[in-house]
What we know:
There is one protein chain. By secondary structure, the protein is an all-alpha fold. The protein has helices spanning 5-27, 38-42, 61-105, 112-137, 147-161, 195-228, 233-259, 269-281, and strands spanning 182-184, 191-193. Strand 1 and strand 2 form a beta hairpin. Helix 3 (61-105) packs antiparallel against helix 7 (233-259).
Amino acid sequence: xxxxxxxxxxxxxxxxxxxxxxxxxAMGGExxxxxxxxxxxxxxxxxxxxxxxxxxxxxxxxSGYKMMSKINQYxxxxxxxxxxxxxxxxxxxxxxxxxxxxxxxVDTSTTNSDIAAQLQSFIAxxxxxxxRFDDTVAQGGVLDNIQAAEISLYELEQSxxxxxxxxxxxxxxxxGLKDIGITIDPVTKQATLDIAQLNNALASNKAGVVSxxxxxxxxxxxxxxxxxxxxxxxQNALDNRSRxxxxxxxxxxxLQNEFGTGNTAKSSGATAQALAAYNTTLGLV
Length: 285
């Protein structure tokens, strides 16, 4: 779901409309007419907050309070999501460099043992990336149902699993990294390298193996760059949350005055850690 300040404004407008409609009905309004402003309908431009934070000037104080509770939670969740998306963007940038380095480091003059070492190094860093964000994107995670994060994990996994890397290479090529011993576990999502299979592939068609590795490294790096580029998935998701966070910050006092204070937002576990990271980055703690 892409969250924007416009989404929040629509929800606020909807609640205002519901309260206004109810209030007009209670007042015996005619022909669906609406007053010039919300405050005009209330007949009082100042709110009356009770000791428990409800705006008693509203016809339905509890609905207003619940709305503000939701906004309070949005503020925390958006900041946590922003921190994790920023961390994911940095990690994708790192993986782009790792893949490009792999492509540059391997050619037909590279020894078989060095090729194996380069692949092992890439796999270790890929697994660390996947392990870092898999739980974050999973159900209940900070980035649960955040399309930009889900697509990022999926696209880079698909790059590793593609059967097309090396397909047009020398001596008939190879059918992707699986033919040289690299596979991804369908449950853990971790990549592994079968050294025996790699050695067999190198023995039978080293030029084809090198071509597959070079194609893979270039493709993975290009995919990572696309995911993290301006105007694309990660950066758009960050921009959306920045606008929403800024909207809440700029309007929080007036919203609380209108709807009540709402419940304090909840944060625990990974959300609390991500929120702390966001606040630290912005120098708020």
